[in-house]
Design goal:
Blueprint: E1 2-3, E2 6-9, E3 14-25, E4 28-38, E5 43-54, E6 59-69, E7 75-84, E8 88-98, E9 102-111, E10 124-134, E11 139-149, E12 152-163, E13 172-173, E14 177-181, E15 185-189, E16 192-195, E17 201-204, E18 207-209
Antiparallel strand pairs: 1-3, 2-3, 3-4, 4-5, 5-6, 6-7, 7-8, 8-9, 9-10, 10-11, 11-12, 13-16, 14-15, 15-18, 16-17
Length: about 210
């Protein structure tokens, strides 16, 4: 379903929608400024600002422009941001949707901290060459990841896996936190949760600050 202020034919195989455009496909809802649908190739060229949501889902995708298939499940988005459960924000120059489950972000940053409009870096963030979100498994996979605090790199990991906020009990790193104490100074907590089995688990929380480890 395609709704807009204006919808018209451009040639024999192309439909153009302009102004307050809304596209509905199954459980997926997309809003944009302009959509050009090539019926012969089954592709959509979309001009933003773009907003993509899933009915009953916790994922929000924003982008400047996109080229997607008619199912709105596969394609390329540029200038993209993705919010997971309103807790974790991912931003990238380019986002690729594929196989109806994977969102791959290139040259991406990930953080649960609010990003300042002034451009000041958040308290913590992870920069990576690529971040892949597996919607089916609820996992985030990082390639060439660099963990930063206040814009200062502290840790490099070639590969890293973290559960997304939809997971309630799974082995992996949890959201790090910054702690300030008058005696210990400013410190970082990086918790790691180990789900041993259905009845047992273990939480390890390394703590490093100016005056203690």
């Amino acid at each position: 379903m395609l709704i807009a202020d204006q919808v018209y034919l451009a040639g024999n195989d192309r439909i153009v929608a302009e102004g307050n455009v809304e596209a509905l496909q199954g459980r997926t809802r997309l809003t944009a400024t302009r959509i050009s649908f090539d019926q012969a190739e089954g592709t959509l060229k979309i001009e933003g600002p773009i907003r993509i949501t899933e009915e009953g889902g916790d994922t929000l995708i924003l982008a400047d422009a996109a080229e997607l298939d008619a199912e709105l499940r596969n394609g390329l988005l540029s200038g993209a941001r993705m919010m997971l459960s309103s807790q974790v924000q991912l931003a990238a120059a380019q986002l690729t949707r594929s196989e109806d489950r994977y969102n791959s972000l290139y040259k991406a940053t990930v953080s649960s901290c609010q990003v300042c409009e002034t451009g000041k870096p958040p308290l913590w963030q992870i920069r990576a060459m690529r971040v892949t979100h597996d919607e089916a498994e609820g996992q985030l996979y990082f390639d060439e990841a660099r963990f930063e605090v206040m814009g200062v790199p502290l840790l490099y990991l070639p590969h890293l896996r973290m559960p997304d906020p939809s997971q309630t009990r799974v082995t992996g790193f949890l959201i790090p936190s910054i702690k300030r104490n008058s005696l210990l100074g400013t410190g970082l907590k990086l918790p790691y949760f180990w789900a041993i089995d259905d009845q047992r688990d273990l939480l390890l929380t390394p703590y490093v600050s100016q005056n203690t480890k």
